[in-house]
Protein 1
Amino acid sequence: MNRLLDNLCQMIVPVDLGVLAEYQHRIDQLTKPKGSLGRLEEIASGHGAIRHPQVASPKRKYTFTFAADHGISRSGVSLYPREVTAQMVCNFLSGGAAISVMCRHYGIENVVVDVGVDHDFKPHRRLVSRKVGDGTRNLLEEAAMTWEQAKEYVRVGADLADEYAKHGADLVGTGDMGIGDTTASSAIFAAVTGLEPQEVTGKGTGIDGARLRSKVALIRRALDLHRPDGSDPLEVLARVGGFEIGAILGLILGCASKRVPVVVDGFISTAGAVLAILACPLVKDFLFFSHRSREKGHRVILDGLGAKPLFNLDLSLGEGSGAVMLWI
């Protein structure tokens, strides 16, 4: 595995099970029947054990919405053209998107990060620019990104985790925006699990049956072309992934190394989480999976991880919206 990933993984210390039991014991002493708050108790004790010995109650919460374009978007895998990625970023910055409204209402800072949108944005106080390229290449023709780009985007995520941990982050959520990102995520899941593409590929933005069959066939072609080693997270990312997925991978590893819990949003964020867990299985103890999305493969992947999302509302928006719902 790559030295950057190795170094991040070596910094991750397992959650102390004794401390976890101590927090659960505190909860059991409250004036209520034992276990009566269900999985809310699991969240509270888990967060406390991760942050120990710091104050358990999260004060500073951030959700990161990573935006990037995908070369595969030019092959008809979405109802929308790639230009929508840039339009949505502008909507985030103007405060009109769903994630913007939710974060504003509940006092959560939404960090919008351009990690590869095919557009030159004007400087904005709410926009963090960490762009290395203007979107991935078309994975039907060549690898989605170079090896150096893959490493750089993991570093971008890890650096942001370090920066915001220094700002006092107690809790971090993942989010995404990018036309074509469900295709990249499905390709990642198929590569890592060995499952057939149709088992982990859904309708994304709401494509019809014919376009879904085409999407599945395109993913199969890409996997046959690149044959990524499913045990190597960086190779899978470089061959068939996305820039925002690489940043989410790095953010998760970086947060775990700083003992900052991460709330994982939906399908695309789970792709980043799967690669992070592949790099370092310990990282799973630092993750809370917020929900099971409408995407067909999400249930399959979550079940494979043994992850128990907190709710199922048939969400498919992304942006970090599901992660924020867990906090409110």
Note: The CA atoms of residues 51 and 259 lie 6 Å apart.
Protein 2
Amino acid sequence: MSEITCIGILVADLVGRPIDRFPEKGKLMLVPEMELHAGGCAHNTGVDLKKLGEEVKVVGKVGRDGLGEFMINSLRAHGIDAGGISEDDEHHTSATMVIVDGQGERTFLHYPGANRGLREKDIEDSFLSGSQIVHIAGSFLMPGFDGEETARVLERAKNLGALTSLDTAWDDTGKWLSTIEPALSYIDIFLSNRDEAHHISGKTNLPDIARFFMDYGIKVVAIKMGEEGSFIMTEEEKVLVPPFSVVAVDGTGAGDAFCAGFLVGYLRGWDLYETGRFANACGAMCVRKMGATEGVGSLEETLAFIEEAEGKGNSR
């Protein structure tokens, strides 16, 4: 069992599905399902890691409101240390309207909220010490923390003996590399989806994308590709890992589940393919249920899912 600190965004998700059209302006349309879930990259990855058997601290910021209590209570209900979560008097808790279509594809309306207020000063050394990995979850959605402040926290984490990892989100400002570049040289494990990694690097070919990040000193780059699987590269090797074929109900949190699975495999010293296969399985299990973490299982359940799927030839 390892200890992992997840620093990043905390978001209340209002998820509706299936929604394949929108009502006319001023009109009402009934939605078959709508649920409130605790979400955000730090929450989701932290909960998934806990389900997979790791000890987890989550560090972030919420508003002093009902949704903030909801987020903190969700973490505590999963047995996660929420002592690193502070309350912001200026902003409400971040929230997202998640619109899921009949194929499980998601569209988001996002309010950044208290995630805007997270700063380096909120992250004490005690939140970092003792952790095998310090993971930044949701870069580009924390404007006060992204870039230089993220770099300083990652440097502190490395000085305290931790490995560092970072997962990106979509940069709606379009700044991409200029925002994240100060942090890149302090990252050991870089996790991103193909679109985001392309926009940061300016590269299209997967090995070229990975090489761009590795030139900053990053040890391993893992690119999430959804229904196409994942691509992982180090200085020694590169692997393309096929996906699992499942019926997608809600894709919310699949990328965070991948990150949790990847970190678990990496900490256990599994080879790149085995690590990517496990991460893909976590993402596949996630999309089978509504909500960002409900579908993710334990370590044993995930390994059983892989064994059953491979026994049926359930991969592309």
Note: Residues 177 and 313 are 40 Å apart (CA to CA).
Protein 3
Amino acid sequence: MSQRLISRSPDLQRLQNEGYEVSITGGKLLIGHVPFRNAAGEVDYGILVSDLQLQAADTTAQPTDHVARFIGGVPHSTDGGRLNRLIIDESPQQVAEGLTTACTFSQKPLGGVPYTDYYEKMTTYLGLIQAPALALDPNATAITHPVVLDEDEESVFNYIDTASSRAGIGVVTEKLKVGKVAIVGLGGSGSYILDFLAKTPVAEIHLYDKDGFYQHNAFRSPGAPSVADLERKLTKVEHFAQLYAGMRKGIVPHEGFIDETNVDELREMSFVFIAADSGRAKKLISSKLIEFGIPFIDVGMGLWERDGRIGGNVRTTTGTSTKNDHLQRRISSGGEADGDDVYAQNIQIAELNALNAAFAVIKWKQLVDFYADDEHEYNSTYVVGGNTVIRDEQAA
């Protein structure tokens, strides 16, 4: 109830987005870790409390009074006396189980009109209470950016996606709530695809790879694994499933590659990212996904070394049941480039892996109408040497 009310109330959401310790207990709005000057002339911390008026659909109404209370002590002014301009009563009052206030405040808004909302009310009081504390310690603040757990049992996240709420794109982000998405291949590009997808509300992310997570993988994948992590000798799907379990639910590891024996598992997916190295696997998977009617994106690189420098291309190819006539000429059944392929040697190219993954996830977000898509291209190629992107294979 508490977090649902906050997320549905713009004034409370704004307080939370700005990093205040917002909570609701017993019908009271609380903001914790509020710095104040105590009787000893030191910075102390307390809790600001306000009655909470609600309306239908679990949202806040406009505050009906200008009274607030304080837990943790009696705030003092810069001259050492009590903050008499605010305090109207120092009688202890129990506002909820285990919460007893030390004093009561009264501060009418400018002009005598009611406070517009709880953001205005609480920040007005915060400014007045904190000012004497800031004179003692300029770093004293009520903004702590606490971790906010997600109380929604249907959410995939272990804590609230405050990034979307801060940016005001919660409604747009709802478009990313698709069912099951698969990533075939967890090498450099596949692991970065996972990193980006893990931060979206996709219900399930299925990982397919049977290789181990070795030392060279640490240099072209997200994170910074320790020696102890490498010595565990986990498979890639185990390593990454455990890594992202701290942030979200729904990471499903499959220890094996996709081949003729298990390709039918992809029928359950709403979308598939193909980041496999094998050209044969790419051909099998892409043809089956077209048969199943499941859209997909295939990623790949073709790199070369000349005169001590690395050049080449980063490719992102989209296929659907209605647009797939380009796949045979875009997705190679062998290596991604003629001649020596530096990529196959597992050298450190983390930035190109991440770029390839970013292009793929951006395209997927365009397909679900999260991002604008003016070109509707089904193939794009980033040229390293020219720092350019070539877009082609537009849909008719």
Note: The domain at 162-394 is CATH 3.40.50.720 (Rossmann fold).
Protein 4
Amino acid sequence: MDELTGLYDDARAMLPELAELRHALHRVPELGLHLPRTQALVLEALEGLGLEVTTGESLTSVVAVLRGARPGPAVLLRGDMDALPVTEDTGEPFTSEHEGLMHACGHDMHVAGLVGAARLLAARRDEIAGSVVLMFQPGEEGDGGAEYMIREGVLDAAGERVVAAYGVHVSGGLLPHGVVAGRAGTAMAAPDDVTVTVHGVGGHGSAPHRAADPVPVAAEIVLALQAMVTRRFDVFDPVVVTVGSIHAGTANNVIPASATLEITVRTFSQDTWTAAPDRLREVCEHVAAAHGMTATVDYRRGYPVTVNDPHELDRTARLARSLFGDDAWVEMPSPLAGGEDFSYVLQEVPGAFVFVSAILPGEDPRTAPYNHSPQARFDDEALTRSAALLAGLALDRLAEG
């Protein structure tokens, strides 16, 4: 307990330098898998810590291995680095200098928090039996950077497979100030993308019987998909289908030859994730066939379901309470419907992915601008909780041997 208290005290003592790093990262947001300026700032921040540092081949990742004073297993800590194509509207003095780009999801917080964890662990190297792999990852926002880094060997960067992996994500809203939240099992959904094209026969609006109008068929598919999720899937293992775009035609008196639906499908278990494509395809093709038309379905897999190991989630909850107080841990009653590519790591090794509140003091979690908003703001003080929690998780797991 005393050691954990000291960990949080040390994290708070380094807040000014962590905030300075976070602000520097925030000014230069970059998209996707190639983040050269961000990578340079990370490499600079890790200098002098005695780490074994390598950079990615197919992406601008950074992997740093911290060796403890004694041999032992290896664990992994991850922070994602990429930004979003969002125009910032926060008024922060360190606002984005790259027009149309913003760290609206708090990944600048993740990077600075992981650097903080590295510094805390480096100062405790003599206490560590084993190694810590620090995973600075590009391309979380849709590019699957974690998958690239796994292929390039991040899980074996210490010379052996890591035995556990941990990640945090800051939350600009939803959660009260100062808390850490998580749940065992499914923590986040698997988001898939689908394009459905209904193929009809174009014609004149005055003679629909001489054409094959795909527009009412597309509308029927929209309704049939909503019935599908409540009649073909267990209500306690839900599927969420959202038709976000419908496009057809060019004029009010012209029957188009096709209609296109853009859809997102979100599932929360391996079973529903496996079944969803066939179920959706059946609905679309059969509704179209009932009207003498055809439908093509382009179903594109997104990230897998993010699943927390129950034992590692318990460890995280225990440490959050020990570090920040008994009221600091919040059990999430249900998963979030967003996706996360740390799921690829958690498919390979047990671990935990949790949420650290970074809401500004005094803000209402119900109304504060949330992640991805142009107005999203994050409290620098949350960097101390992220750094202390990540470092504490590494120390606690390595102490088990």
Note: The first helix runs from residue 2 to 13.
